[in-house]
Specification:
Helix content: over 70%
Radius of gyration: 55 Å
Distance between the termini: 176 Å
Structural class: mainly alpha
Strand content: under 5%
């Protein structure tokens, strides 16, 4: 009977160790599964971060290119406006000069000249064409 009791005690201890080992193996399996899920989550987060970083970089590049293009368009418009302003100023200058020349010509054409004598403030005013002949 003592041998049988020793056998049972040994069996129970062995069974307890086997159950404990099975529980430990189950816990290890659970830990491995959790680790795999954590790894999957981390990989998904890494992919999401990479995608976000790529999208952000693309957005920054798009904005930079758009601002650069707008700056170039504004500069081109400013240059065109300056050129147009210069053309308008030139045309106004030409028109002013033409008007001044026409005014001077019309004024000169209204002053009767005596051959050999130019317009002079010291001459008496000429009122009609007959007074030129009497000079």
């Amino acid at each position: 009977e003592a041998v049988f009791n020793e056998f049972l005690r040994t069996q129970n201890a062995s069974n307890a160790t086997s159950v404990r080992d099975q529980i430990d193996l189950h816990n290890v399996d659970k830990m491995i599964a959790e680790q795999e899920r954590s790894t999957d989550v981390l990989l998904a987060l890494q992919r999401l971060e990479d995608s976000s970083r790529t999208q952000f970089t693309t957005l920054v590049n798009t904005v930079t290119n758009t601002v650069t293009r707008l700056g170039e368009e504004v500069a081109a418009m400013r240059n065109e406006m300056r050129d147009n302003f210069n053309v308008v100023n030139y045309r106004l200058s030409v028109m002013e000069n033409d008007a001044l020349v026409r005014y001077k010509r019309s004024t000169i054409n209204r002053i009767p000249f005596v051959v050999g004598v130019g317009p002079d403030d010291t001459l008496p005013p000429i009122t009609d064409i007959h007074s030129i002949n009497n000079m």
